[in-house]
């Protein structure tokens, strides 16, 4: 008996007793005695197909929920429902060789224990579009980016060619070793892949000359087409190309064009941060990852104004937030607060800090103008300049969090640190 089984034995016994009760209900009569009948029903409809079975639905749901609570990281509700219905209930309710008494109870316990003890780790591959990779695989957090072989591409196209028509060639897979049944594993994997893609998109500022946005993404993701269908003079259909009027789409090489923008120690710090569980990260570490996400969203195709506002959201998410009982914030204003924090986090000397302060005020002021309807013209240059500035703040915050640790773990501590920097004399620095 495993440690998990011992600690949950009383719960397993209660769930098994409920399963036995369901078997006895089905055995009392009705269509469930026909082995073939079960194949016409689903785990949800077996209780509605016959009036005498309807009370079993609530019992079954409690059993499913109880099993999920004992093994939440590995199981999905669908998997538990399917196995309990077709492997246990169907067999015990309609089989000629019916178990009874303690034997039936033991069988029910064994079925629940099998689910509770279930563990699986399977590699899930997501195809990535508009990205190249030369050489060895690249690991970012829980994701390993691998160059697709010619055989990989042919196999993929063979099974999914109708869905891939018109989509940019795929040259890279993102692999995640994901826990749980397929549904659970796939959901876990896409979360990790999206987190890694956020990092790549964040590093895409400034964009390649032939495009105005980063189009790296999982195949099938919306917002990554290279042209829009239009109708001309109300009669003729055509394709209006985005960007500079060519079919060129930036397909960067992962190491050369993207990761080269990071120093090695920064890459190591990012990996270290991603591999932490959400509960083990500090408040500011989670804000950093959320800020990177919004900066990545700003790199994706959208209107210029929307993307510029998203960069502003990224800055607020990274270093914004009101410390409790900070009455001075109303006096200083949010723009001044963000400018000051950014300057102390990313600035190397007085001139650098003054430049950062001024740039944040300028860009964030433009963002406020957009939000309040006073500003409408936003250029690609504006987007790139603001994006690069906020990325610099993000990477500097990453290094500060590693260097200062608990001294910057919350917004309150960040504000206290900034105040210390503000009033520290030069000879004390």
What would your notes on this structure say?
It is a single chain. This protein is α+β, with helices and mostly antiparallel strands and 429 residues long. The protein has three domains: 114 residues, no CATH class; 142 residues, no CATH class; 167 residues, no CATH class. It is built from 16 helices and seven strands. It has a five-stranded antiparallel β-sheet with strand order 2-3-4-1-5. A two-stranded antiparallel sheet has the order 6-7. Strand 6 and strand 7 form a beta hairpin. Helix 2 runs antiparallel to helix 3. The protein is elongated, with a radius of gyration of 28 Å. The N and C termini lie far apart (60 Å).
Number of helical segments with 4 or more residues: 16
CA-CA gap between termini: 60 Å
Major β-sheet profile: 5 strands, antiparallel
Number of domains: 3
Determine the strand fraction and express it as a percent band.
Answer: 5-15%
Number of extended strands: 7
Oligomeric state of the chains present here: single chain
**What is the helix fraction of residues, given as a range?**
55-70%
Return the structural class.
alpha+beta
Low-confidence stretches: 243-247
User: What is the C-alpha radius of gyration, as a whole number of Å?
Assistant: 28 Å
Element order: H for helix, E for strand: HHHHHEEEHEHEEEHHHHHHHHH
Shape, principal axes of CA atoms: elongated
Strand order of the largest sheet: 2-3-4-1-5
In round numbers, the mean pLDDT is: 87
Question: Would you spell out the secondary-structure blueprint of this structure?
Answer:
Elements: H1 3-7, H2 9-27, H3 56-70, H4 77-94, H5 101-116, E1 121-129, E2 138-140, E3 143-147, H6 150-164, E4 170-179, H7 182-202, E5 217-218, E6 227-232, E7 236-241, H8 254-258, H9 264-275, H10 283-299, H11 304-319, H12 328-332, H13 334-346, H14 350-371, H15 380-404, H16 411-423
Antiparallel strand pairs: 1-4, 1-5, 2-3, 3-4, 6-7
């Amino acid at each position: 008996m495993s440690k998990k089984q011992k600690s949950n034995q009383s719960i397993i016994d209660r769930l098994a007793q409920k399963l036995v009760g369901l078997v006895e209900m089905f055995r009392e009569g009705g269509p469930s005695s026909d082995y073939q009948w079960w194949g016409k029903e689903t785990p949800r409809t077996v209780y509605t197909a016959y009036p005498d079975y309807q009370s079993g639905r609530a019992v079954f749901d409690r059993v499913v929920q109880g099993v999920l609570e004992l093994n939440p990281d590995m199981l999905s509700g669908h998997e538990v429902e399917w196995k309990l219905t077709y492997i246990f209930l169907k067999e015990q309710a309609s089989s000629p060789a019916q178990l009874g008494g303690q034997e039936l109870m033991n069988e029910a316990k064994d079925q629940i224990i099998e689910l509770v003890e279930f563990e699986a780790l399977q590699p899930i591959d997501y195809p990535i579009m508009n990205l190249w990779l030369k050489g060895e695989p690249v690991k970012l957090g829980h994701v390993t980016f691998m160059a697709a072989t010619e055989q990989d591409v042919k196999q993929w196209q063979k099974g999914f060619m109708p869905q891939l028509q018109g989509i940019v060639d795929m040259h890279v897979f993102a692999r995640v070793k994901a826990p749980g049944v397929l549904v659970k594993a796939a959901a876990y994997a896409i979360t990790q892949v999206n987190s890694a893609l956020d990092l790549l998109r964040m590093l895409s500022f400034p964009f390649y000359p032939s495009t105005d946005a980063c189009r790296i993404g999982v195949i099938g993701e919306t917002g990554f087409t290279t042209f829009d269908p239009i109708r001309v003079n109300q009669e003729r259909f055509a394709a209006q190309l985005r960007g500079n009027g060519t079919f060129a789409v930036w397909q960067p090489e992962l190491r050369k064009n993207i990761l080269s923008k990071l120093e090695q120690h920064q890459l190591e710090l990012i990996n270290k941060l991603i591999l932490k569980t959400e509960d083990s990260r500090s408040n500011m570490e989670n804000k950093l990852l959320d800020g990177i996400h919004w900066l990545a969203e700003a790199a994706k195709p959208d209107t210029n104004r929307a993307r510029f506002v998203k960069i502003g959201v990224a800055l607020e998410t990274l270093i914004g937030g009101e410390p409790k009982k900070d009455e001075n914030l109303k006096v200083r204003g949010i723009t001044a607060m963000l400018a000051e924090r950014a300057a102390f986090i990313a600035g190397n000397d007085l001139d650098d800090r003054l430049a950062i302060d001024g740039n944040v005020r300028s860009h964030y002021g433009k963002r406020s103008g957009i939000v309040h309807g006073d500003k409408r013209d936003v250029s690609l240059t504006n987007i790139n300049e603001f994006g690069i500035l906020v990325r610099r703040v993000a990477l500097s915050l990453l290094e500060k969090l590693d260097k200062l640790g608990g001294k910057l773990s919350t917004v309150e501590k960040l504000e206290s640190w900034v105040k210390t920097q503000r009033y520290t004399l030069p000879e004390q620095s």
